[in-house]
Specification:
This protein is α/β, with parallel strands linked by helices and about 375 residues long. The chain has two domains: about 5-130 and about 365-384, Enolase-like, domain 1, CATH 3.30.390.10; about 135-365, Enolase-like C-terminal domain (TIM Barrel, Alpha-Beta Barrel). The protein contains 13 helices and 17 strands. The protein has helices at about 75-90, 100-105, 110-130, 135-140, 155-170, 185-195, 215-220, 235-245, 260-270, 280, 285-295, 310-320, 370-375, and strands at about 15, 20-35, 40-55, 55-60, 95, 145, 150, 175-180, 200-205, 225-230, 250, 275, 300-305, 345, 355, 365, 375-384. The strands form five sheets. The protein has a seven-stranded parallel sheet. A four-stranded antiparallel sheet has the order 4-3-2-17, sandwiched between helices. Strand 8, helix 6 and strand 9 (about 200-205) form a beta-alpha-beta unit. Helix 1 (about 75-90) crosses helix 3. The longest helix has 19 residues, at about 110-130. The chain is globular. Bound molecules: N-acetyl naphthylalanine and magnesium ion (MG). Magnesium ion binds near residues 203 and 275.
Length: about 375
């Protein structure tokens, strides 16, 4: 079949009848442990979603962790909600355009990470069926994205300085360091002393309160690009109070759980920058809506990261090719997290700190079934 025949007149993908949804729990060691204000991880247990329809396959990755520390959702709540409620919303149904999948799951309240994993798999399927890169369906406008790194809390200042030096050597365009009370002003001062005007930001993952915010006020003189999620995970109003006292932009991550929350955050002036993670807001369609809302308010966005395998990572690269992703994101090379990754080719960063958007159909990377099989702890195949 020619490419043109796969498209209808409006250039939209044609409908696909979904006949199977597979849920797969994989366990993968991280290349190095990752520590944040909420804990330390050495391995990940990740739920992958595969959808099949009319001979084509799509892959999605659930970004929930096994522990409810970053968010209320966990790997196991996602498995439960996908198996018992969400899979049936698409199984045996004709999906016209993947942007409609979110609507088919609207009757389930919350559970954005579970919904996103399935919705994103449907986007990959539709793009593969149409023979185009996912970015083309999403509305991406750039051929490569700017890459930054997120550096976990380190055992010492010396170890942090070494890590940052190695990442800059690899070309990354921006460095984010995790902070918590007791690991904030000192590490930032050390990085400024050693690396001067390096594009630098911090992420507290909700570790402070207005009462314990003095170190954040001290950081206001450090010329940071932004301070990410300093206060509670579901707070907006205290963030607005803190933002009023800071010259440095606050970026919200955990607090932006939906488009409506983002609108509230901007109305309250709770932040000046927004971190977009499709898992946190329910998938690609919700991420595009959030991206567009922020653009309309003149609020820059960047793409967050959740220690994804190459499946989620590739999805993120495609999404981050939309125009208002104007700051380097937390999308780094596969090899910083998993070696080998579960996909080929792995996501790689070029010496100029950019990642090219894959040009093949769908997410543009292929799952290596043998590596998946070795990592699999549980699998279920649901059929119409
Ligand atoms: C953030 N990510 O921006 C998150 C937090 C994060 C790359 O900094 C397991 C599952 C471990 C999810 C560690 C980055 C995690 C996780 C950190 C999310 O806030
Ligand atoms: Mg964050």
């Amino acid at each position: 079949m020619t490419r043109a025949a796969r498209w209808n007149r409006r250039g939209e993908p044609r409908d696909v009848l979904i006949d199977a949804v597979e849920l797969r729990l994989v366990r993968l060691r991280l290349v190095r442990p990752f520590e944040t204000s909420f804990g330390r991880v050495e391995e990940r247990r990740i739920l992958l979603v595969r959808v099949d329809g009319e001979g084509a396959t799509g892959w999605g990755e659930c970004v929930a962790d096994v522990d409810p520390f970053y968010s209320a959702e966990t790997t196991h709540t996602c498995w439960h909600v996908l198996e018992s409620y969400l899979a049936s919303a698409v199984l045996g149904r004709r999906i016209g355009h993947p942007r409609e999948v979110g609507g088919a799951m609207r009757h389930v309240r919350g559970h954005s990470m579970a919904k996103a994993a399935l919705e994103m798999a449907a986007w990959d399927l539709a793009a593969r069926q149409a023979g185009v890169p996912l970015a083309a369906l999403l509305g991406g406008t750039r051929e490569a994205i700017a890459s930054g790194v997120s550096i976990g809390i380190q055992p010492s200042i010396g170890a942090l300085v070494e890590r940052v030096a190695a990442e800059l050597e690899a070309g990354y365009q921006r460095v984010k360091v995790k902070i918590k009370p007791g690991w904030d002003v000192e590490p930032v001062r050390a990085l400024r002393e050693r690396f001067g005007s390096l594009p630098l930001m911090v992420d507290a993952n909700a570790a402070y309160t207005l009462e314990t915010a003095d170190p954040l006020l001290a950081l206001d003189a450090a010329g940071l690009m932004m301070i990410e999620q300093p206060l509670d995970y579901d707070d907006l109003s205290d963030h607005a109070a803190l933002q009023a006292r800071l010259r440095t932009a606050i970026c919200l991550d955990e607090s932006i759980a939906s488009i409506a929350r983002a609108a509230d955050a901007m109305a309250l002036r709770a932040c000046r920058i927004v971190n977009i993670k499709p898992g946190r807001v329910g998938g690609h369609a919700a991420s595009i809506a959030l991206h567009d809302l922020c653009a309309a308010h003149g609020v820059p966005v960047w793409h967050g990261g959740m220690l994804e395998t190459g499946i989620g990572r590739a999805h993120n690269v495609h999404l981050a090719s939309l125009p208002n992703f104007s700051l380097p994101g937390d999308i780094a090379a596969s090899r910083r997290y998993f070696d080998p990754d579960v996909v080929e080719p792995p996501i790689e960063v070029r010496p100029d700190g950019t990642i090219p958007v894959p040009r093949g159909p769908g997410i543009g990377v292929e799952v290596v079934e043998e590596r998946l099989a070795r990592a699999t702890e549980a699998v279920v195949s649901l059929r119409a």
